[in-house]
Amino acid sequence: MSAEPVQYPQAPKRCGAKTRGARGGRPCRTWAMPNGKCRMHGGKSGGPTGPANGAWRGGKYSRAGKELITGLHQMRRDGEALLAVSLDAHGLSRKLPKSLRRRTHIRRARAEAKAAAKAKEPK
Ligand SMILES: [Zn+2]
């Protein structure tokens, strides 16, 4: 005689998780939730991903959102560097705010522009 229940085609899907305690080691027979596990073996955890999830905050923490923000920050740095180099080229270096002059990307861009100008200079 088998201890396993008879499986009917219309019966709900079973959880199948490995059980502990008195039933130790045998598969859980409780009906499964949409994610394939019963309410006690992870069926209730998690949730829909993306905007369908109630905790969705506009996507700023999503992979695409983070990439977009990273790109925007790079655009800002590029723009600031361009401004700094252009001001230098027109002799308006003092117009660049101190807060920008100190920043690494500005320093690097100015040093590169200076080096390029020096290299061009015929001697
Ligand atoms: Zn289960």
In a few lines, what is going on in this structure?
The protein is mostly helical.
**What do the pLDDT scores average to?**
88
Number of helices: 3
Following the backbone from N to C, one meets helices and strands in this order, namely HHH
Main beta-sheet strand count, sense and barrel state: none
Ligands present: zinc ion
Please give a structural write-up.
With 123 residues, the chain is mainly α. The chain has a domain at 63-120. The protein is built from 3 helices and no strands. The protein starts with 62 loop residues before the first helix and ends with a helix. The structure holds zinc ion. Residues 15, 17, 28, 30, 37-38, 40-41 line the site of zinc ion. The site of zinc ion has 8 residues, from loops.
Q: What keyword list fits this structure?
A:
123 residues, mainly alpha, 3 helices, 0% strand, binds zinc ion
Set out the fold topology.
Elements: H1 63-89, H2 98-101, H3 104-120
Helix pairs in contact: 1-3
The structure holds zinc ion (ZN).
